[in-house]
Amino acid sequence: MQVKNGILKSMLLTSFILALLGLSLGCARKVPLVNPSFEVRSVEITTTSDSIKRALRARRWVLVRETPGMIVARYQRSAKVGATIQINYSKNNITIMLVESSNLLQGLDNRGNEVIHRAYSGWIANLENDIRLELSYN
After folding, report:
1. How far is CA 88 from the centre of its chain?
2. Which of 43, 50, 59, 95 is the most exposed place for a label (fewest CB within 10 A)?
3. Residue 33 phi, psi dihedral angles, 5° rounding
4. How far is CA 59 from CA 74, 122, 128, 136, in A?
């Protein structure tokens, strides 16, 4: 009977450790949500707009809506995973903000800070770099 108790305790301890490991790995997939805002130097606002649209196309973002000074775009990683962003821009500044996400673990951490899957942060960092690069050509 003692052998069974020992095995049972060992299995419970192993399960507990695996559950803790799963929780910590799950949290590692989440990073703080950042809505980047950066200065640019553009001769004309159409140059800024065109540069943003070229960067979006290069990264396979789909233009959803466009008005002067604002572009809404959607990236669909898979049938269930994606994000919609709003880009506000002028000749001097660009701001990228998350509008909505699908299956990107968006929420609040235990301190009340907004978090999202690290993949989204990579998408936005790549997009920001591409916009800067496009603007440097002009």
Report:
1. 17
2. 43
3. -75, 125
4. 11, 11, 11, 18
